[in-house]
Amino acid sequence: MLKNERLHKFLCSRNEILTEQWYESLDKSKKGIYSTTDPKEIEQLKKQNYEFHVLFCSMFSKDHNEFLVEFQDWIKRVAKDEAHLNTPLEEVLEEFFNTQKQYLKLLEEYYTQNIEFVSHEQYAEWNLGVVDAISEIVQEFTVQNTEASQVRLQAQQELIVEMSAPVILLSKNTGLLPLVGEINTYRSQVIFEKALEQSSKYSIDKLYIDLSGVPIIDTMVAQQIFQLIYGLRIIGVRTALSGISPEIAQTAVQLGIQFTGIEVYSTLVQAIDKIEINA
């Protein structure tokens, strides 16, 4: 059995010391939270580490399952906070194993001081218990941190895509939709929705869609763009295309897409020269 109240008290009495020793030993040249010079962030980092020790030393006073359940909240909070999401995972895991070394050293100290009361078998069991507990915590932390990183990355990508489809007002009733970069199926759908929404919001009569910044468009995306043109026409918005590359033109021809009723300009400058500015 790992339970031992005397060992528990011994370890808990050193929680603050462990935190200060750990922080002083940090490689401040590392990326992320460990190199911060912000007093508030340092205080929060130390607080999280101290809370870890309060929870961890309880492994010698509680059942293993109860110990792990109580650790879940700490793991989720720390794994998902911005500071640790902005820190390379391998550097965070390294600090878990540095903390493991702290506990193994304390166990050795306790064993040496109480060798007449503690068998070598008991000491070995405690060592194994610390290593196993750290491994379980590291595994759960990795899962939680990776999931949180993926969610944040997806949210950032969606925000970037949404921001990359702005309708710019050129005059009271004229707008410009400049498309830049690769357009995939998801982004083309966002462009479709945002262009319709913003054209209606700004009461646009005519929208210039510039494709000069788009290197290539596949057949599915080309269909989406022309569906956008037809969708705009339904809500009373006339459209004009500029910057169509030979590759895009070829794709449109292969699809049998007709440019009838659509103004087409070779460059955006040429298109803008035709705009009648309405105050």
List the SSEs and their pairings.
Elements: H1 5-12, H2 15-25, H3 39-56, H4 64-80, H5 82-85, H6 89-113, H7 120-163, E1 168-169, E2 174-180, H8 185-201, E3 206-213, H9 219-234, E4 238-242, H10 246-255, E5 263-265, H11 268-272
Parallel strand pairs: 2-3, 3-4, 4-5
Antiparallel strand pairs: 1-2
Helix pairs in contact: 2-3, 3-4, 4-7, 6-7, 8-9
Description of the molecule:
It contains eleven helices and five strands. Helix 3 (39-56) runs antiparallel to helix 4, helix 4 (64-80) packs parallel to helix 7 (120-163) and helix 6 runs antiparallel to helix 7 (120-163). It has 279 residues and is an alpha/beta fold. The longest helix has 44 residues, at 120-163. The chain folds into two domains: 5-159, Globin-like; 168-272, STAS domain (Transcription Regulator spoIIAA, 2-Layer Sandwich), CATH 3.30.750. 63% of the residues lie in helices and 9% in strands. Strand 3, helix 9 and strand 4 form a beta-alpha-beta unit. The termini are far apart. The model has no long low-confidence stretch (mean pLDDT 87). Strands 1-2-3-4-5 form a five-stranded mixed sheet.
Q: Distance between termini?
A: 83 Å
**What's the CATH H-level homologous superfamily of the largest domain?**
Globins
CATH topological fold name of the largest domain: Globin-like
Largest sheet, in brief, is: 5 strands, mixed
- Assembly form of the protein: single chain
Q: Rg, please?
A: 31 Å
Low-confidence stretches: none
Based on the structure given, which CATH architecture of the largest domain is correct?
A: Orthogonal Bundle
| Strand order, largest beta sheet | 1-2-3-4-5
CATH level 1 class label of the largest domain: Mainly Alpha
Q: What's the β-strand tally?
A: 5
Structural class: alpha/beta
Strand content: 5-15%
Order of helices and strands: HHHHHHHEEHEHEHEH
